[in-house]
Amino acid sequence: MTALLDMDSLLDELEQALRNQLARRGVDTPVLIGIRTGGVWIADLLHKRLGLTEPLGELDISFYRDDFSRIGLNPRVKPSHLPFETEGRDIILVDDVIMSGRTIRAAMNEIFDYGRPASIILATLIDLGSRELPIQPDVVAQSLSLAASQRVKLRGPDPLRVEMRDANA
Hints:
The chain is α/β, with parallel strands linked by helices. It has helices at 7-25, 38-50, 68-71, 102-114; strands at 2-5, 31-35, 57-59, 90-98, 119-127, 139-143, 150-155, 161-166. It has a single domain (8-148), classed as Rossmann fold (3-Layer(aba) Sandwich). β2, α2 and β3 form a beta-alpha-beta unit. α1 crosses α2 (38-50).
């Protein structure tokens, strides 16, 4: 059985929470970076909604993963693309789902290799809350608790949708 979450509502929630976070921090000119692939899809939509003028950045964290030597190279690795300086910038880092925190740690390591940002705001569509590292999103559209047999998958980019399914089905 597959259930779909309302993508428009999730994006509305994420956009509003992000606008509130930017205002609270006094950030006027952030740059947006999405983590491939789902984070890039969401970041692209947020980029348009927020009316940001600088181009969207994309990270492929494959070489920064802490399990790289164990799982090997993803066959669809593409180079990261950051068409702006990160040094001293306020960055919005976007991923689709946060669970262990390991993907975010890898993304931050890569960002710091480009330069030291002034700040990073972490925005995620769904928080599954099963942390292995002490990393928390600043803004999240929805927190979910899943049964051990359930999985969440972002499909897209057109149409973009979130599927919750029972892995045993």
